[in-house]
Design a protein that fits this description.
A hairpin with a 4-residue loop joins strand 2 and strand 3. It is globular, with a radius of gyration of 31 Å. It has a 5-stranded mixed sheet. It has a 5-stranded mixed sheet with strand order 4-10-9-6-7. Helices cover about 45% and strands about 10% of the residues. Helix 1 runs antiparallel to helix 2, helix 2 packs antiparallel against helix 3 and helix 6 packs across helix 10. It folds into 5 domains: about 100 residues; about 140 residues, Sandwich (Immunoglobulin-like), CATH 2.60.40; about 100 residues, Cytochrome c-like domain (Cytochrome Bc1 Complex, Chain D, domain 2, Orthogonal Bundle); about 30 residues; about 100 residues, Cytochrome Bc1 Complex, Chain D, domain 2. About 10% of the residues have low confidence. The chain is of the alpha+beta class and about 525 residues long.
Length: about 525
């Protein structure tokens, strides 16, 4: 019996004694914080093992020495005040012992102040966008694992699904602050070696920080279920010496200058259909195939097919526009900042001629540059953060406030001027065209492009009471919003002409067909 007891105790104690050598245990990482997290983990493990030794030791002792075959007679008592106090006080003391180091570690993890470098990390389906504050450097990082390995036609590499085309390069021995957000759904930036795991939420900013002690390459991935290609969103961080980092910054600026010069030179080039198709296929497979599939068939009900679609058969300019500027209210991203004009031209050419589309269209970089002149009018798809907007210093905050006040005053003056100049009546066709543009930009994200809304969250506008009711009530809710709901007031965001046009569009689109034509003059005096 004693030998059995020793074996059981050995099984309980040995995991704690040899945990640091076990491949399944938490790793220590390469930062001071990751070391603190590891030590906290081991402290909790030791406490759990100690509790296990005591509890199972008492159980085994009782089973051996108080068994029926030994003549033991069970005690007959209902309750014990001493026992009640004991099993309340002892767990309380244990929790206090565990809470002290845990609190210290959490406080250290949440202190991004006095950072030497700030980087904005923006997640999107399914890539990471990195922006170095004050360095004028930004780039997208995409998974580079070949499709052949993913589809099983080639042997998987050493870092399967954990390799990217561009590493996030960071200096060692510097405090680095991360600002994390998202432009579509919730992602999570996780690098175990740094003990950094923070959600990237659309419309919000989360903070984290690290100070890397050892040069090397460290890998992580998105740790939040963010869609069908969630598993294809890796993170690769390359930690280098401070001197190498400064040289990398210079190299990146030179590469950016060379890329800009090459993009400008491409505007005068004319590529053949074969050259455009070859380049376009590479870009499509890297950027578009995740949603629209390598064969262009899309995912029914989620991502549209590109085989013989109205977009492919329609005007080239509309095709270029949706690739460059995206489509508000949908998962279609804007690629104007991700691809050059030449690359956009190539991928549009490929989509219009692949999978049997055979349009014969050859799009050149000059076509993209000319057709994308209004790209700045598209609403930004990610939060605009500037160094001044995130630094806590009083002088910088004052500068931001002053700049915002000036911009707001200019915006008000512009809006007032627009409202003064936009009281002329428009024809129904003009109202519908303008209203559709305004709706897709400002309303479709909630009520959907088809007007069907999201049941339980945003009401449908197809045959709804607000649409079939008085025009004045419809105008009131668009202009002044609705208290207690997510319906915003658009009086300060849209001109009178735009307000009239979007109400006209909603009352006549999707089969509503009210025939109402609302004019800018109808909007005057309705703002509260």
């Amino acid at each position: 019996m004693k030998q059995l007891l020793y074996c059981v105790l050995a099984l309980i104690i040995s995991p704690a004694l040899f945990a640091s050598d076990m491949p399944l245990n938490m790793t220590e990482g390469v930062t001071e914080i990751s070391g603190q997290v590891y030590n906290l983990h081991m402290i909790i493990l030791y406490i759990c093992c100690a509790i296990g030794i005591v509890v199972f030791g008492v159980m085994i002792y009782a089973m051996i020495n108080h068994r029926k075959s030994k003549g033991a007679i069970a005690a007959n008592f209902h309750e014990s005040t001493k026992v009640e106090i004991l099993w309340t006080v002892v767990p309380f003391i244990i929790l206090i012992i565990m809470a002290i180091p845990a609190t210290k570690t959490l406080i250290a993890m949440e202190d991004p102040s006095d950072a030497d470098l700030t980087i904005k990390i923006t997640g999107s389906q399914w890539k990471w966008h990195y922006s170095y504050f004050d360095k004028d450097i930004e780039f997208y990082s995409l998974m580079s694992t070949p499709r052949e390995q993913i589809e099983g036609t080639e042997a998987k590499g050493e870092h399967y699904l954990l390799e990217v085309d561009k590493h996030l390069v960071l200096p060692i021995n510097r405090k680095i602050r991360f600002l994390m957000t998202s432009e579509d759904v919730i992602h999570s930036w996780w690098v175990p070696a740094f003990a950094v795991k923070k959600d990237a939420n659309p419309g919000f900013i989360n903070e984290a920080w690290t100070r890397i002690d050892e040069p090397g390459i460290y890998r992580g991935q998105c740790a939040e279920l963010c869609g069908k290609d969630h598993g294809f969103m890796p993170i690769v961080v390359e930690a280098v010496s401070e001197a190498d980092f400064e040289q990398w910054l210079l190299d990146q600026k030179q590469l950016a200058a060379n890329a800009k010069a090459a993009a400008e030179a491409a505007l005068t080039q004319t590529l053949s259909l074969d050259e455009l198709m070859a380049q376009g296929e590479q870009i499509y497979m890297a950027q578009c195939a995740a949603c629209h599939q390598p064969n262009g068939a899309g995912l029914p009900g989620v991502f549209p097919s590109l085989i013989g679609s109205p977009l492919i058969k329609g005007p080239v300019a509309a095709h270029i526009d949706i690739v460059a500027n995206g489509k508000p209210g949908t998962a279609m991203q804007a690629f104007a900042k991700q691809l050059t004009a030449q690359q956009i031209a190539a991928v549009v050419t490929y989509e219009r001629n692949a999978w049997g589309n055979n349009s014969g269209d050859t799009v050149q970089a000059a076509d993209v540059s000319n057709g994308n002149s209004d790209a700045t009018s598209v609403l930004p798809t990610e939060i605009d953060l500037t160094p001044a907007a995130v630094q806590p210093e009083a002088e910088q905050i004052q500068a931001v406030v002053t700049e915002a006040v000036v911009e707001a005053a200019e915006t008000v003056e512009t809006a007032e001027a627009a409202n003064t100049e936009s009281l002329d009546d428009l024809a129904m066709d003009e109202l519908m065209a303008l209203g559709k543009q305004v709706y897709l930009r400002s309303c479709a994200s909630c009520h959907q492009a088809s007007g069907t809304g999201i049941p339980g969250a945003f009401p449908s506008l197809v045959g709804s009471p607000i649409i079939t009711g008085p025009v004045s009530e419809h105008l009131d809710i668009v202009i002044n919003g609705k208290a207690g709901t997510a319906m915003l007031s658009f009086n300060a965001q849209l001109t009178r002409q735009q307000l009239a046009a979007v109400v006209t569009y909603e009352r006549n689109a999707w089969g509503n067909s009210s025939g109402d034509a609302v004019q800018a003059s109808d909007v005057v005096g309705l703002a509260k």
